[in-house]
Design goal:
Elements: H1 2-7, H2 34-40, H3 56-80, H4 97-110, E1 127-130, E2 133-136, E3 149-150, H5 153-162, H6 169-179, E4 181-186, H7 192-203, E5 214-216, H8 222-232, E6 242-245, H9 259-272, E7 275-281, H10 287-291, E8 295-297, H11 303-324, H12 336-339, H13 370-373, H14 377-382, H15 387-411, H16 422-434, H17 437-443, H18 450-464, H19 470-489, H20 494-497, H21 513-529, H22 534-552, H23 567-573, E9 576-585, E10 588-597, H24 602-613, H25 618-629, H26 634-650, H27 652-664, H28 669-683, H29 686-702, H30 705-715, H31 724-736, H32 743-753, H33 759-770, H34 775-790, H35 813-820, H36 825-836, H37 839-854, H38 866-876, H39 880-894, H40 903-913, H41 916-927
Helix pairs in contact: 3-37, 4-26, 8-9, 11-16, 11-18, 17-19, 18-19, 19-24, 21-22, 21-24, 22-25, 24-26, 26-27, 26-28, 27-28, 28-29, 28-30, 29-30, 30-31, 30-32, 31-32, 32-34, 33-34, 33-36, 34-36, 34-37, 35-38, 36-38, 39-40
Length: 928
């Protein structure tokens, strides 16, 4: 059969044995360079053996010289196809471009631009004002101390009615009743103080015979002094009293109480019939306390239940006011004056306790929450609430709530049965609004803490009742993350600013700076490296802890305990969550433990708070980011570069002078890539795009070689010039300058531009360069074409999987473009044919073609890039000389001693390149 005869051609034993043997020449079809045509033509006038016999010697010498020149040109060309990321300073291994691209994409996703923190009115740090809602930030700040004294009965009544019990509340209560003392641990703001007050209010309700049955203890005096005061019964410390103590364990030099101190306090409490709850923050200082017999972790209250209850309270309050003032259906139609009060009722997000756990309205508000809170027998069993004692207490608690509701209903007649259904409709609309995707995205937190739930409910209620506009609602929701960031950083080192203790004769010594700064360093590291491995974030946090400690106390060497880290505490204190995921290691993907913030808004909020409000911390953070720029792991370097770009947007003058320009001139490619990535991140903001383009243009025209290299990398992202043609013009200027010194990096970034929608423009300019009279422009085009065939999609594509190119991440970009953009196939084939038929690029292009052919199927036989080859090869191998070259290459691959190509696969590739109709016509022609 004619078909079989041609199909078997690759199996004929005529292939050269040496892999680097020259291929048979193919006559140019209009795309090869003119200066190469005479050299490459097999029967040209300059071929050896032509002319007179007397000229045979000189002709042979000329031919040998031309061959040497061709080899030198081929060597120069091959050198220009090197990886520009490893060209200097002898870097041991190339940068994993695919891992770097994935890390950059992940960092951009976590630091998405467009979140409007500037729109939030924070001119007065003490409070925020959104519509009718005031938020007292000072009440949320974790550095404030509680005052010694009784807790007002009104606050206890509010706690009794509004507190939402976390899972395991009954076990906590039983432990307190049994031991008289409970050490309650949790992250600030999670409701631990509110839970402690609820426990003390409940256990002292019947035993105490005084109006000051719950007292806050002075945190400065600690457990020992409290035990002494309780035992002595002096200064208002009466029998049956409940004590709330929050010792200041985070101050340098402060030692936590030991087991004997706690035993002494528990004994004194038992003698006086009293109780105490010691509230501590999870962390290395408090872990021994929480591990002891008095210790317990306080789980946070469930977010959905918190919001539902607070929202119902707000709507009931406002709905009752509307009914009393003739507001009809209680909808948002009435004006503020007709309703008589603000739509959201004034937020009490600051609350009554420093943990932000307050919430709840004034005395007498309806607290009919049994249905919303889901107080079922199953939930009580889950909490360990079983037995006669637990049932009795629950019955008493429910009876008290029923009595409170009855009294509230008489005091607020508008809060009775909702006969007209207006309140029910408001609640239904509120539930829909709470799940609105735009509102959810604006909040940007996976779970809300009590004070945040209070504010969120106030915003929703205010919007439903007409006092808060849609814009104010979204701005207020975005402010939740900003408030959390403010709380985390406000006054962290206030204790270090105080005069250190000393006797006046010896220099004072400060200690504990590392322990003090580690939590904030971890939050900053998580904002910068979120999505990286937990170990990478933790290591970066320790590095930043050192920088912060040295900056704060330059005369002392920071001391960091080596065995006191607690990953669980880091997660709790930073609202972080672990997740199993993929980590790139030496070009391979392995399973690792990743770490993220519990909310997409927190990374940007942390960086904004850090950069805009704490200027002294910029110096150590800049030093730290420069260190991260040297990290060999792309997951660290690229995420840090994206964060550096976001910080530069917030103050471009400072970011450019301290981060971008110094790293752009660095001797190592890794630092220059960092600077280029940061520049591109800034260019992603319309407000800074013009400035970035001016910088890149100046560097490309007048900069040092290092700055031109960095400019080329920035141009490869496609946002650092006014148009694609301007980008390509600038890359060409960089590539052809100084005898092609920067041609490698210029060609790499031309290839990166082919992943953008304007790739047709790039192909047109490549074709123009191949026809250019200047050899340096020709080389730029030829190197770019070869690199296009050798670059995988993952190495240059920013798109996520799910896009046509993104789903072909391990494909060569040339074949991926052919498969996904069939209208470009002819241009791509013509450009690659030109590289195959130009003398200086032919050998490298043939090697690239071999790489493409081997990618047709994977080692296990599964199909890989066959679809792209099926589109490209018939256009590329259109004529008989091209087929001869393909036949020669396939047979060379079959004889390869290291990776021999199976005959079956060679025949399949031949059939793919030369369709059956073309094979039949050739057979008829050859056999007459």
């Amino acid at each position: 059969m004619a078909d079989e005869a041609v199909a078997e051609r690759p199996a004929e034993p005529a292939a050269p044995k040496a892999k680097d043997a020259r291929s048979p020449e193919a006559p140019p079809r209009g795309g090869a360079r003119g200066d190469d045509k005479a050299k490459d033509a097999p029967d040209g006038a300059n071929a050896p053996g032509s002319g007179d016999a007397s000229d045979s010697g000189s002709s042979a010498d000329d031919a040998a010289e031309r061959e040497k020149e061709r080899e030198r040109a081929a060597d120069r060309f091959k050198d220009r196809t090197r990886d520009p990321l490893t060209e200097e300073q002898g870097e041991e291994e190339p940068t994993d471009a695919a891992a770097a691209t994935r890390a950059r994409r992940s960092g951009q996703k976590l630091l998405a631009s467009g979140r409007d923190f500037i729109g939030l009115d924070r001119s007065d740090v003490g409070q925020l004002h959104i519509g009718d809602i005031n938020i007292r930030l000072d009440a949320l700040r974790s550095g404030l101390s509680m005052r010694d004294g009784p807790v007002p009965e009104e606050e206890l009544l509010r706690i009794r009615r509004t507190h939402i019990e976390p899972e395991g509340y009954v076990r906590l209560r039983r432990a307190l009743v049994a031991r008289r003392l409970l050490v309650l641990g949790g992250a600030p703001g999670t409701g631990r103080v509110s839970t402690a007050l609820a426990l003390l209010e409940e256990v002292t309700r019947e035993g105490a015979r005084n109006s000051e049955r719950v007292r806050r203890a002075d945190p400065e005096r600690g457990v020992r002094e409290l035990a002494a005061q309780v035992a002595a019964g002096e200064g208002g410390h009466l029998r049956g009293t409940g004590y709330l103590l929050e010792p200041a364990l985070d101050r340098p030099g402060t030692l936590p109480p030991d087991g004997m101190d706690l035993d002494q306090l528990a004994s004194a409490l038992a003698e006086r019939g009293s109780y105490a709850v010691v509230v501590v923050s999870v962390g290395s200082a408090a872990n021994p306390l929480l591990a002891g017999r008095y210790g317990a972790i306080c789980p946070p209250a469930p977010t959905r239940e918190l919001v539902a209850v607070r929202l119902r309270e707000r709507l009931e309050e406002e709905h009752g006011d509307l009914l009393r003032n003739g507001g009809g259906q209680g909808g948002p139609g009435g004006s503020r004056d007709e309703r008589g009060r603000g739509g959201a009722g004034g937020s009490r997000a600051g609350g009554q306790d420093r943990d932000g756990d307050g919430g709840g309205g004034p005395d007498g508000d309806t607290r009919d929450r049994d249905e919303d809170r889901g107080r079922t027998d199953a939930s009580r069993d889950r909490n360990g609430d079983g037995g006669p004692d637990g049932d009795s207490r629950d019955r008493d608690r429910n009876r008290d709530r029923d009595r409170d509701r009855s009294r509230d209903s008489g005091r607020h007649p508008g809060r009775g049965p909702d006969g007209d259904g207006a309140l029910s409709r408001l609640l239904a609309r509120a539930a829909e609004l709470r799940e609105d995707p735009e509102v959810t995205e604006a909040v940007g937190l996976d779970d809300l803490r009590p004070a945040e739930a209070e504010l969120f409910a106030s915003l929703l209620a205010g919007h439903l009742l007409g006092s808060v506009s849609r814009e104010e609602l979204l701005s207020g929701c975005r402010g939740l993350a900003a408030v959390q960031a403010y709380e985390w950083f406000a006054g962290v080192d206030r204790a270090l600013a105080a005069p250190p203790p000393g006797d006046g004769r010896t220099p004072p010594v400060r200690s504990g700076t590392a322990a003090l700064f580690h939590p904030v360093a971890f939050r900053i590291a998580l904002a910068v490296l979120g999505g990286a491995s937990h170990s990478a974030v933790s290591a970066a946090a320790h590095l930043l802890t050192w920088e912060l400690s040295v900056q704060s106390d330059p005369d002392s060497t920071p001391a960091r305990p080596l065995f006191c880290d607690d990953p669980e505490s880091d997660l709790a204190l930073s609202r972080a969550r672990p997740a199993d995921g993929i980590v790139d290691v030496a070009g391979s993907e392995v399973t690792g433990r990743l770490i993220f913030y519990r909310g997409s808004a927190l990374p940007a909020a942390v960086l904004a708070e850090l950069w805009d409000r704490h200027f002294p911390v910029r110096a150590p953070v800049v030093r730290w980011l420069r260190l991260l720029a040297d990290d060999p792991r792309p997951q660290v370097t690229m995420r840090a570069a994206v964060a550096a770009g976001e910080l530069s947007v917030r103050d471009f003058e400072h970011g450019y002078a301290e981060l971008i320009r110094p790293l752009a001139e660095a001797p190592t490619p890794r630092r220059r890539v960092f600077a280029a990535t940061a520049l591109d991140q800034a260019a992603g903001h319309a407000s800074h795009r013009r400035a970035v383009r001016k910088v890149v243009d100046n560097w490309s025209r007048h900069g040092t070689p290092a700055l031109r290299w960095t400019a080329a990398m920035a141009l490869g992202y496609g946002r650092s010039a006014d148009s694609m043609d301007d980008t390509l013009d600038t890359l060409a200027d960089i590539g052809v300058r100084d005898d092609g010194e920067q041609l490698a990096v210029a060609s790499l970034n031309v290839v990166r531009l082919l992943t953008l929608p304007e790739c047709a423009t790039v192909l047109r300019r490549l074709a123009d360069w191949t026809a250019h009279r200047g050899e340096e422009y020709q080389d730029l085009a030829l190197v770019s074409i070869v690199r296009l065939a050798l670059t995988d999609v993952d190495e240059v594509l920013d798109d996520e999987p799910g896009t046509p190119l993104g789903d072909r991440g391990d494909w060569p970009l040339l074949l991926a473009l052919t498969a996904t953009r069939p209208e470009l196939t002819g241009r791509l084939a013509d450009l690659f044919w030109t590289a195959l038929n130009t003398a200086r690029s032919r050998d490298v292009a043939l090697d690239a073609l071999e790489t493409l052919l081997r990618s047709a199927a994977r080692k296990d036989g599964r199909e890989w890039t066959r679809e792209g080859l099926a589109a490209l090869l018939p256009v590329l191998i259109a004529k008989e000389p091209d087929q001869r070259r393909l036949d020669w290459l396939l047979r060379r691959m079959m004889r390869d001693q290291d990776r021999p190509l199976a005959a079956e696969r060679a025949r399949a590739l031949w059939r793919l390149a030369v369709p059956a109709p073309r094979r039949r016509s050739e057979e008829e022609e050859s056999h007459g």
